[in-house]
Amino acid sequence: MPLDRDHLIGKEALMILLQPEKKLSKELIDLGWRSCKGKVGSMDAHKVVAAVETAAKNQGMIDPQLYRETHALYHTIIEALSGVTRGNNQLGTVLRTVGLTFSIVRGNPYKDEREGEWLAVALYGTIGAPVKGLEHETIGLGINHI
């Protein structure tokens, strides 16, 4: 069954992230989609992962008692982080630091409900040397099924 082009989960995550006033539409909420947003800054990739994972658990985006949901979220975060770091998920060990805003969206982007729920994690902000003013913009997106 094809994607529902009116309900693209990655696009929604990016729009929520890049437009501060953007929230999920009533239509997506009626479909059972959920979202949350947060910030993280660190020289350690594991702290970025932990911040997004903590927000997802605290905001009810995943059920922390279900391994498959935590596992799907982890891989979604790593995929998004890979975009931010250009495929090398190292930060402090190579003298890089990030300041990121993130969004998480959960829903079914397919026309057939049997496809189940998916997660999208979007990251946007800066990356660079740990010296103020020596950074540049970066963005990453991860999408995974639960």
UniProtKB/TrEMBL annotation:
Keyword annotations of the record: Activator, Histidine metabolism, RNA-binding, Transcription, Transcription regulation
Matching InterPro entries: Regulatory_HutP, Regulatory_HutP_bacillales, Regulatory_HutP_sf
CDD domains: HutP (cd11640)
Extent of the signal sequence: none
Top-level taxon in the UniProt lineage: Bacteria
A Pfam family of this chain: HutP
Ubl conjugation recorded as keyword: no
Family assignment from sequence similarity: Belongs to the HutP family.
Known function: Antiterminator that binds to cis-acting regulatory sequences on the mRNA in the presence of histidine, thereby suppressing transcription termination and activating the hut operon for histidine utilization.
Assembly notes: Homohexamer.
Protein name: Hut operon positive regulatory protein
Organism placement in taxonomy: Bacteria, Bacillati, Bacillota, Bacilli, Bacillales
Gene name as annotated: hutP
